[in-house]
Design brief:
- Two copies of one chain form a homodimer.
- The first copy, chain A, is of the alpha+beta class.
- Chain A has two domains: 137 residues, PurM-like, N-terminal domain (60s Ribosomal Protein L30, Chain: A, 2-Layer Sandwich); 140 residues, PurM-like C-terminal domain (Phosphoribosyl-aminoimidazole Synthetase, Chain A, domain 2).
- Chain A is 29% helix and 27% strand.
- Chain A is built from eight helices and 14 strands.
- In chain A, strands 9-11-8-12-10-13-14 form a seven-stranded mixed sheet, sandwiched between helices.
- In chain A, strand 5, helix 3 and strand 6 form a beta-alpha-beta unit.
- The radius of gyration of chain A is 21 Å and the shape is globular.
- The C terminus of chain A is likely disordered.
- Chains A and B meet through helix 1, strand 3, strand 4, strand 5 and strand 6 of A and helix 1, strand 3, strand 4, strand 5 and strand 6 of B.
- Strand 4 of chain A pairs antiparallel with strand 3 of chain B.
Chain lengths: 310, 310
């Protein structure tokens, strides 16, 4: 963790870096050198999984949101990416771009949110950077973890595979987008099951992420069963005022961060999946396009997610 | 590499992600899974070095700067952090926050600058994220590399150690801050020399980074020899109009990204160091504070770098 000279008075910067070094101090024997040098030195295995996603004020959260939850989201977004590979997260690097309005109290809330999320996932924060920005608050987390023997890829779907999702979808923008839990245990378990053919985390919306899976797999299409799609209570609440159905929100809303996965054959018993996740929501088909089975009829839905109408 | 739904029309986003996947395609056998899945999967050794620094419009560059050079700087800043540990960079993750004014042509210049710098350092760009931002352009690179057997730390200085710097300093803000070369070969060589006791890259300015080394080492102070400090021609040019001496710029200016290192004994012959780097610029002392020997006199200089007056 280093502090940019351009960010503030060097003294204040160095004091903040020291504060972070204390906050993120770890006894993890894998951290050979953590915050406080030019770079971190980490024990790693033969295969490392790495993801790096930012959260930006005005894009992924708004000024009024709890900064502790913003920090949590910045960590959890990246843990969700690792979960979608079946990887166990281990180390985090954190880049903070702090705007002029940021107070010491705000900074403290943010970094404590990051620290709490990291602890909850048994991850060590091992480095990063702090700088001042003339623009919005940006928190960019890089997550590193150990790859499973067979990482879950996007490209394994074949016609006939059943599609599953680890939890209910829709309405995340009402607040869940800050509070979702990355499906780390589920991803790690799924990566160990030979019947699981592909996986992605639902960040752009079920239809769009399904389209991404199909495209990566060179699979022509899929049929979803409207009754089988788990709809989050927040989607039902949102439907009361949005002019759309709850199913519309479940199909199109993003930032659920549940895992969407394909399965060829029966999922073994045991493991961390909720019962609902064992019931297929649809099937990969040999005919092109995304279709929705609803009220006994089969009809196409568009892939743009939130542009369709159901 | 994933694209945020929030960043633009999903179609355009996905097209850009595909463009990046083509541009950053690699035959590096270490990249088991590159751009195009939820996370990258990389072959790693037992010890991985990781750094993550951003460049921000209005802080680390200005709107009129060449975007190819901005991309280069974003890569080289992080390679310099790895160089300061003596590590060889191997993989890069790139997070791009693109403002509304950003055109397709601007995007292309930026990513080609990143790609060229990565190729020049034999690094593969293996993942990251693209999102739109309401604020300034931000490029955050995470660099991963293999740690040497004995990484160069900041904490090894002892009184009596000679201080060295790999190249001339000062005046980088006149343009060199976009064009510096990370001292990767020098760092890797220094990490192999038992006489080298500590290292840092000069990003905040010689005096400030020396103060950081001394603090990390629990060393009381140092004496610098004004005649021995290599002054960059840009510092001489800057002195013509700044009202300061060229030495002032060499001591205080940041973003030189030369390596400042300590040495206990003689540096072996051979290796990539320039002759000038073999001549000490000063010595770690047992008496507190930073002192400058100039014109036969010894006087204190303040650690705030650009606030002193010489």
């Amino acid at each position: 963790m280093s502090a940019d000279r351009t960010a503030a008075a060097p003294g204040a910067e160095r004091a903040f870096t020291r504060e972070l070094a204390r906050l993120f101090a770890t006894e993890d024997p894998g951290v050979l050198l953590g915050i406080g040098d030019d770079a971190a030195v980490l024990r790693t295995g033969p295969r490392t999984v790495a993801a790096c996603d930012p959260v930006v004020e005005g894009v992924h959260f708004t000024r009024g949101d709890s900064l502790a939850l913003v920090g949590r989201k910045a960590v959890h977004r990246n843990l969700s990416d690792l979960a979608a590979m079946g990887a166990l997260p281990r180390y985090l690097l954190v880049s903070l771009l702090l705007p002029g309005w940021f107070t010491a109290a705000a900074r403290r809330q943010l970094v404590h949110g990051i620290a709490k999320a990291a602890r909850g996932a048994h991850c060590a924060v091992v480095g990063g950077d702090v700088a001042r920005t003339p623009g919005p608050l940006v928190v960019t987390v890089t997550a590193l973890g150990a790859a499973p023997r067979r990482p879950l890829r996007r490209s394994g779907l074949r016609p006939g595979d059943h599609l599953h999702v680890t939890g209910p979808l829709g309405g995340s923008s009402a607040g869940r987008h800050l509070r979702f839990l990355p499906r780390v245990a589920e991803g790690a378990w799924l990566a160990g099951q030979r019947v699981v053919t592909a996986a992605i985390d639902v960040s752009d919306g079920l239809l769009l992420d399904l389209a991404t899976l199909l495209e990566a797999s060179d699979a022509p299409g899929a049929v979803l069963d409207a009754r089988a799609i788990p709809v989050h209570p927040a989607a039902h609440r949102m439907a009361l005022s949005s002019g759309h159905t709850a199913l519309h929100h479940a199909l199109g809303d993003g930032e659920d961060h549940e895992l969407l996965f394909g399965c060829r054959g029966s999922l073994p018993d045991g493991g961390p999946l909720r019962p609902r996740a064992r019931r297929p929501i649809g099937t990969v088909s040999a005919t092109p396009g995304l279709m929705l089975r609803q009220n006994g009829r089969l009809r196409p839905v568009t892939v743009a997610g939130y542009q369709h109408d159901v």
